[in-house]
Structures are given as structure tokens and as C-alpha cells.
Amino acid sequence: MHSVPRVRCPGTLPIAGQDDNNDDDGESGPYVRDTEYEERVIQVRRVTKVVKGGKQLSFRAVVVVGNNNGTVGVASASAKEVAQAAQKAVLKAKRRLITVPLTRNALSVPHAFDSYFSGAKVLLRPASEGTGVIAGGAVRVVLELAGVRNGFGKQVGGSNPLNNAKAAIEGLRAMRTLRQVAAERDISVAQLLGLPPKKESSDAVPV
Fold first, then answer.
1. In angstroms, rounded to a whole number, what is the distance separating the alpha carbons of residues 186 and 130?
2. CATH number of the domain that 159 lies in?
3. What burial letters (b/e) apply to 145-172, b meaning 16+ CB within 10 Å?
4. Quick one: where's region Disordered (predicted)?
């Protein structure tokens, strides 16, 4: 297993990783750092592509982008230089941002969920205030940049960082709060929870 060099490119924080996966390339363009979003590189790998003239060497970067307040995205891209690959991945991730519903007090996920992507399986569980983020690898990065401050995340499938990050994204995308579920069913939150309807007070003085 070869070691992956730690790199620093504009607007990214280096986090080395291993393993590989296939993903399409994004379009390159001028890179301008957006201060609203934090960017972290969770994997940099050297990959090869067999062509008619031989092998083409390039670098693939996996990047997580989030605003630490309920918005996060994951993408990967390849380029001949590490910095270019990271920049392309950042642009792709910003086009794939999702909104994550967070609990008001604990800033945690609203409910438990098991998510899958390819060979990866990620378990997401809510936690009370003061617990912190208990997770590792790519799942921890996704939860932190999504704004989760208390929660559990565990990788029980494959160890591929890209697959685990995308599995965490799919789990966060599927999260729903009680208000969202009640609105989708066109009922009240009390009806959703099976609570008796509130009775109107009979002590009101007629006007």
C-alpha cells in the first residue's frame, strides 16, 4: 500500500485516505474560494487510465463541502495535478449540495437511519446535547460540515472513503422531521404522534 502525500490547495484542508473508486470528471473552470463553505479533502489517489498510446497518470481527489449549518455535498474529480483535481471536486460538490434537517436544541439528526451506497453501509443515530460527534473517517467529516454537533455514525460496510461519504449523504438526504412528515401526510404533528386533540376551553366568557 503506497502512502498518499498530504497536500494543501486553495480553500481545502488535507485529509489523506486510501482505496479507489470510479467517478466522472467535472468541468474545469476558474476557482474562487467561497468563504461561506468549508472544504475538506478526504482522499487523494494516483490513478491510471489505459489508452491507445499507453497509460495516463492523474490524481483523483474526494472533497466534502459544507456550511456547518445544514448544507453539505460530496464529489470527486480527476486531473493531472492535485490542486486542479481538488478544485474540480469542490465545484462539483457545490452543485450537489443537499439540505439536512437538524434538531433545534441538540443540533443532531432527527432520527436513526441506516444508509447504503455501493458496498458501504453507514449507521446514523441521534444523540443528546453534549455528546459530540462520535464517528470516524469520511462519515465524521460529512456530519461536521453538515452542522451536526451531536450524533453517532458508524461505518459497517466497505472502507472506501468515497462510498462511505456518499452513504452518509444518502442517509442525511433521507432524514425527515416530524413537521415535514406531518406536512407530507397533510395532518398535524399531534395526529402523527397519536395524541388526543386539544379540547377548547368552555370557560370562555361570551362577548
1. 34
2. 3.30.230.10
3. bbbbbbbbbebebbebbbbbbbbbbbbb
4. 1-32
| This prediction's pTM | 0.76
Give the closest residue to 107 by CA, choosing from 157, 146, 66. 146
In a domain, 116, yes or no: yes
| SS3 of residue 133 by DSSP | strand
Distance from C-alpha of 117 to C-alpha of 142, rounded to nearest angstrom: 15
Say whether 36 sits in a helix, a strand or coil.
coil
User: In this structure, which amino acid lies at residue 18?
Assistant: Q
Domain co-membership, 34 together with 46: yes
Whether residues 114 and 184 fall in one domain: yes
- Domain-terminating residue out of 98, 122, 147: 98
Q: What is the pLDDT of residues 112-132, one digit of tens each?
A: 999 999 999 999 999 999 999
Mean pLDDT, rounded, for 174-201: 85
Domain that holds residue 124: 101-191
pLDDT in the model for residue 24:
46
